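Archive entry: two folds, one per protein. Generate the first.
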Amino acid sequence: MTFITANWNPLGEAFYRKSELYEMCWNLRDGLRDCLVAAAPYGGPIALLREPVRRSPSSRPQLEIYSASGVSIASFPWKSGPVVHLGWTRHFSMGQEVVQSQVLEAKVFHSPYGTGVAIVTGSSRFIMATNIDDLKLRRLPEVPGLQGKPSCWVVLNQDRQTKVLLSTGSELYILDNTSCTAVSLPGLAPQGGSIVHMSVSFSYKYLAVLTDSGHLWTGPSHLQDKMSEVDTKKLTPPKQMVWCRRPKSQQPSVVLMWDRLLMVVGVCQDTIQFPTEDQCVLVGEMDGVRIISSTNQELLQEVPLVCQEIFKIASMAPGALLLEAHREYEKSSQKADEYLREIKEQSMLGEAVSQCIEAAGHEYDPNTQKSLMRAASFGKCFLTDFSPGQFVTTCRELRVLNSVRESSVGLPLTHTQFKQMTLQVLIDRLVYRQFYPLAIEMCRYLKIPDYQGVSRVLKHWASCKVQQKDLSDEAIARAMCAKVGDSPGVSYSDIAAKAYECGRTELAIKLLDFEARSGEQVPLLLKMKRSQLALSKAVESGDTDLVYTVVTYLKNEMNRGDFFMTLRNQPVALSLYRQFCKLQEQETLKDLYNQDDDHKELANYYVTASYREKRLESRLSLLQSAVDEYNKAKNEFSAKATEEEMRLLRFQRKLDDEKGAGLLELSLQATMEALLALGLYKQAEQLYRDFRVPDKRYWWLKLKSLAEKEEWDELEKFSKSKKSPIGYLAFVEVCMKSNNKYEAKKYVSKVTPEQRVKAHLAISDLDGAADAAIERKNDSEIATVLSRCSAADRLLIERLNRASTAKK
């Protein structure tokens, strides 16, 4: 424990420690002098621009990107204008207004609304964008008397608004969207002097202000209160000033850096001073400050309270006792039992285990972590109701953190930062740095669902893989199939789209062969101008909507001849397109049939088209074309039927002209019915003979027509004209339907014996029906007559019963 506390420095009631994170892997000949440096928060990468001021036609500044451990990630010459500030954001542009203005200073900041940028222009105006993802530039009000850039300024977040706090000598102003307001620092000593430096905390809740007399004022950023004022006894402005505090901090502090001195100033008036041998850069984090030099990187932070309680000399905290008990247990000493008894007597064993687990999360050294976690494991063996969840989770998280803290990866995350950043963001960082095996192993170890973990990593890996120009298309496709396989959430079409964007069309087609969803394959194939392959894929899918999509695209992109030839090679697509044309594009359908020499379908088209014509001549012309095509197709039946249709139309037109009968467009049967209804019997007879209408149909038509008109004499004459092909029961039934029993009786005697019972029953002649049934000795007919008898027909019933008995 003495070793652990060796680098602790007291500051008020708390302690601060400086832990080495890395020996930097870079080789900077001149160190960090004459460099602009920007390190991303949460252990992010470092951007370094060498000699930004020295610009000549033959030499350009080199922008270099390193991991936090100094491993080179990228390097490229800076080809744009002079750089005034370096910061980490997404790619964006502030537009021509800013380009045309001279930028004196700039700051990148992070607010609840996103990453923002504020600049000071050559006209001493502030322009701000609070969220670069939704870029809206705001020109802030003018500052009275400001010439050039202010002596110092910071960006604040107050009352859900982003504001600028600036100093011009001893004057202090706050700029918001509409106003410039003069403010003062509560409790600042009169001898404070002009403000030369300002710094806002990582959370934007606290502000530190340094004056030219060396007084450091700290307080809340809303400027309503004062935390402390400390005389640093330094009259030269520091190169950097950064807040150093952690969540639930006991003793927040401000870190100031001069050429060879690092000073930690606490709100308790105490200070800690560290000599520095090299040019350094301070990077504020949510729970400390990273100190980057050309040789190493350190983390300065307040020692967490739980670590203080465990590791302080002579500490009697439960966690400290449990750690000591475990050490004695490993020595096989009975003192272990004494320490455990002491903890149990205070009923603090559960708290001791929790303290060790929590402290392990805050420690950076793996050996210290192991000691604490083993002590926690030792302690929970004596507890019956202790939930293992916290222990298991911390073990897993520490294993993850230790793996990403390795120098080869270079992500020096603390446990507090990891919790704030979330696991998903950490995986994203590994993916963007192309640490795919580590990211996949981490996802599997933490049992993250595939669509959030492994599949997402594989998708990014595949998108990068297709950009490797040194590998052949075949090799990349095989690697994709082997690695990705059927991983859920990975779309081969998305990977193929990336390959196509990179100019690798053949690779994109190979990758699309692995895509199971045709709906994803086809749009990309069309985009790549592989229309015939897209059509084949659409047909194979069995999705008619997809086929229609491709066909529509081909129709718009190809000339008509090529389009039709393409469809001829795909019968399914051709059939679907014909169905579409039948409903939407009749003329195109005709062209299709002509192209294919499909005489039968072309004839059918002419027949269908004839019904849409109003003029008889046009209709007959189309029907004649249909006859010609049917003959070419050797379809004699259809040709003859069409010719008869033409004859019928001409006959109807002739009668319409002569009699005004209104027969046009009626069917043959309807025409005959109309003629019979109009009394044009000769014309009806002519149609009957000319079109060889079956006798039974004609007799039925005329029978019904005469009965409906009640022309009974004509009906009787018609029945005697020749032997009825439909029999005479029909005459009886039609007469009875018209309620003419008298006429019906005339035809009963002509009915065949087999139907005579029905005829007598139709006219309600039970006696005649009984005679006919008895004469035929038919049980079924006798039973039918009996069913129609009532109680009053007792004699008839007896007669029928005797006849039935006698037959048996």
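Generate the second and append.
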Amino acid sequence: MGSLFRSEEMTLCQLFLQSEAAYACVSELGELGLVQFRDLNPDVNVFQRKFVNEVRRCDEMERKLRYLEKEIKKDGIPMLDTGESPEAPQPREMIDLEATFEKLENELREVNQNAEALKRNFLELTELKHILRKTQVFFDETVPTVSYNTSSSTATFKSRWRYGRRQMADNQNEDEQAQLLGEEAGVRASQPGQNLKLGFVAGVILRERLAAFERMLWRACRGNVFLRQAMIESPLEDPSNGDQVYKSVFIIFFQGDQLKTRVKKICEGFRATLYPCPEAPADRREMAMGVMTRIEDLNTVLGQTQDHRHRVLVAAAKNLKIVRKIKAIYHTLNLFNLDVTQKCLIAECWVPVLDIETIQLALRRGTERSGSSVPPILNRMQTFENPPTYNRTNKFTKAFQALIDAYGVASYREMNPAPYTIITFPFLFAVMFGDLGHGTLMALFGLWMIRKEKGLAAQKTTNEIWNIFFGGRYIIFLMGVFSMYTGLIYNDIFSKSLNIFGSHWHVNYNKTTVLNNKHLQLNPSTVDYEGEPYPFGMDPIWQVATANKIIFQNSYKMKISIILGVIHMIFGVSLSLHNHTYFKNRNAVLYEFIPQLVFLVMMFFYLALLMFIKWNRYAATNSPPYSAGCAPSILITFIDMVLGNTPKTPLEGCESYMYAGQSLFQSLFRFIALCCIPVMLLGKPLKIIQARRQANRQNLTGATSDAEVGMTNGTAGGGAGHGGGGDNHEEEELSEICIHQGIHTIEFVLGSVSHTASYLRLWALSLAHAQLAEVLWNMVLSIGLRQEGWTGGIMLTIVFAFWAILTIGILVLMEGLSAFLHTLRLHWVEFQSKFYKGTGYAFQPFAFDQIIENGGTPAVEGAE
């Protein structure tokens, strides 16, 4: 078969490169992305390899680029991905690149420092502007005239504090007022005593610290200060981190140098910023005008600085991919060996056989770029190692291949389940999710992502959930399309039916009987039924058959689930034949495939056949012994067949068996199925014992036979020589072989029963999905549909929005995820266990695209 159904044929090659041409050749191979290099120096420390200094230089350049990239993202500068990747520069250009990045980094750091200083200065001027505005309001307000004497100082300041707090709370003014400062600054007593001179400090503080700041002032100064504050409405930018912070302006009045010192220490402890504020109104106005002028100048300078920073970052955004390529090249060159002359590099690599000519052309281009006259040499090697597994994919098959690889990477040249999964996965999902309306929503979402895939892929978002949805857009689309098909089969659209061809049932009761009789049923043996089934899918009458709708659908979907499950498992066993024949494992065909297939057919395919016989022979319109009342239970019949029981005595006029000779056939099928078990259990070990005895008699040391080895060719170039799907028992003990075969036989026999029952999840989830949709319709949307008039229109709009949210959130997303996981389990366990081992390792080529996307060093086989 082609590479679609089986992994690519791989070969191990030895590559000889001249030292001068090695860099250019590896660069060309990185652009090609078809070579996986092996580490030929596994015991050499990474710091002792030949190109470690170049890797360190690349690390330093990458550090600088990470800093530049962080600043680019900080400024929101778009780094448009045009899809074009610049070629890796020559080694002699590294010095120029280092100088360029050093210049960009130093220039950007200098610009950042200048911008931070300017922003800090701008913040200080902005805070000073708000202080001058707010304090002018404070000074224009007045407080009661107070007198000061030694004996009453404490009581006077306490009353002033209480008055100030009360004034801030309700903004009430007293009739007797005097200016705070004066002639603007002094306070004169209206009676004999000492004149009172108040000092003050003004500043700004973070708004969340203001309450604790006020309490501390009260406690530390014993209430002998007067605090006024006002919020700055607009947020201010913190120059250190760029965050928006909210601050408040405050002014504190006090008397005496001791209180002044205490107030300043408290301000320093709460990281409040103090600013000079003149006492005279004229001085304050003059300072405010100067501050506004300086702010305007700073705005101009900040704009120019930001433009210069933007130009520097735009220039740096073009070089982000180059350094990763250079680093990856030198990292790969460290995997090579040097010959004795120190002039030639030797490498080993896995390559696809079909791409050897393409790789040789790439090596020739690299040699021409480097100007070397010695051509590279690519030799195929003979090896007994298992090559990596390489399945070619495109944007359509990539997601399905990822589902298979999540279970386990296929062994080399093993049958690839991905092509079959493209059909079986969305179909089994649709059996559980069958609804024309929900399937349409899912298909439209997948189709939208497919139509917009170029633009959505260029965004490169870091949202993991969205990346999962986008990566599986083709799976989502196919699941939606198949769900639309099964929805038509079930005749189910948002829990309602489509009467396309007209129902083949007729209600012959009057309206009163239909509305009042809750146990009313339609009898197919009467004129209620036309005698012919609905042309496509279920008859729409079943949607309104409240009494026996679930009974009918349970019987139908349960049998369909078993039939689909048996077909799926038999198909999986049939695929194992392709593995056995490809690896020339004759014993596996005789003692595994044939008895397994016969066992499944004799037992479970016969079970599915009984369902078709029952559907075909028994009907409500037939007379006994094939009437509806005489139809036997398929489950009881199957249990009697397995246990060898005699069926119970049927009703009068009925027969115990569905067809003539059923007892004889069932006994024969049971006997054949039981005979398959010892063949699976003992056939292969006995054949291996016979082959070993024959080899000992012929004195063939180290020889193997087809009975012990599932392959005949052990070379990499032979394709089938790597037994990814074969069984090598040459070095195994006979006891281990018998135990392994016994476990495998027991697992298959018991697993056939459990796996068949596991497919009943198709019925269970389909029934649950239909019932949830019906509940949402009856308990949510029908409320709005029953309303009349203009109020009914408003009510219906609100109810419909609520119903749509629940439909998408629960029935499409949650039920869709549940059905997806159950479908995944049916493929991983019930289907792939019949033929798929998944014990290989993935082909990880040296490819610049993957390295740039992942932002790391290339994956290497055998690297520490």
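Annotation attached to the second fold: Residues 142-194, 702-721 have pLDDT under 50 and may be disordered. The longest strand covers residues 10-18.
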